[in-house]
Amino acid sequence: MKTLTRYLLISFIATSGLLASSFSIAKSAIWQVSKGDEYIYLAGSIHILPSKELPLPTEFNQAYKLIDTLVLEADVPAPSDSSAQLTLLKALSYQAGETLSSKLTEKVKQQLKLQLNSYGMHLYELDSFRPFMVSLLIMSLELQKQQLLGEGVDSYLAKLAKQDNKKIAYLETLAFQLNLFKQLGNEDENTFIESLLAQVSDFQQLYVEMLYAWRNGDMQAMAQLTTLPLKQRDPLTYEMLIKQRNLTWLSKIERYFTNHQKELVLVGAAHLAGEDSLLGLLKNKGYAIKQLNTDEE
């Protein structure tokens, strides 16, 4: 469960650039994938990125200028879309009469109360939410507390694409993501919440390591932080969150090599790390993979 929490962190949050400015970075988290004369860009995203981390690495902007279509994981609704937000909250909430606190031991319940109190909140305000939703709220509140909250790479580029009238496509539906995420932690809410609370104090350091791996395009380090421990300790969750989604996305990505247009496919960085990564799957199918360098135009 601890490794699942680590996956959630890389999937939804990044941190400050405490290390990024201290090293000379040679590689980026963006690749050109080609077969014959056709090619696309495939890039890793950090889904929540502090404003201090903008502008994005040069390679992202260079690739973005050359594309016709930006491809994202899913069409996540804007905070101003009240109807969509209501749908999201409903999907990540329990049925009437069911509560999170009723599934926790007294010890974990008290720990959760104390953590929420540190943000000026109370358990009864979140008691109807499923574990995954509570984890997102706690992570967001903690990052806000540390002044690390901000929009992600995908959100940033999606806004640019809309402004520039570029096409936006998606690898999966929001409904699919919600159905997937609401299952996380539901079989053992107590262990899920206990693991989350045990790692709150480590959020910042973990994010620094992940952000540094992302900025360097170091997918070996990213795998060590995310996919490898998840696969070793919770293979079923790894299969559901990483491997099967990558396989599904692969068939959709391959279609972009036949339309004579240019796409930038942007997915969570963890999906580009490890032996079941999208990069590995594409390479095994004969595509040429070229990681972009910081000095390349």
Order of helices and strands: HEEHEHHHHHEHHHHHHEHE
* Average pLDDT over all residues: 86
| Computed CA radius of gyration, to the nearest angstrom | 19 Å
Low-confidence segments: 1-5, 10-25
Structural class: alpha/beta
- Please give the largest β-sheet: 6 strands, mixed
Q: Count all strands and give the number.
A: 6
Shape: globular
- The number of distinct helices, counting runs of at least 4 residues, comes to 14
Residues in β-strands, percent: 5-15%
Oligomer: single chain
At a glance:
It contains 14 helices and 6 strands.
Describe this structure in words.
With about 300 residues, the chain is an alpha/beta fold. About 50% of the residues lie in helices and about 10% in strands.
Lay out the secondary structure.
Blueprint: H1 2-12, E1 27-35, E2 38-45, H2 58-66, E3 69-72, H3 82-91, H4 106-117, H5 123-126, H6 131-145, H7 153-163, E4 167-170, H8 174-181, H9 189-199, H10 203-216, H11 219-225, H12 227-233, H13 235-254, E5 263-268, H14 278-284, E6 288-293
Parallel strand pairs: 2-5, 3-4, 3-5
Antiparallel strand pairs: 1-2, 1-6
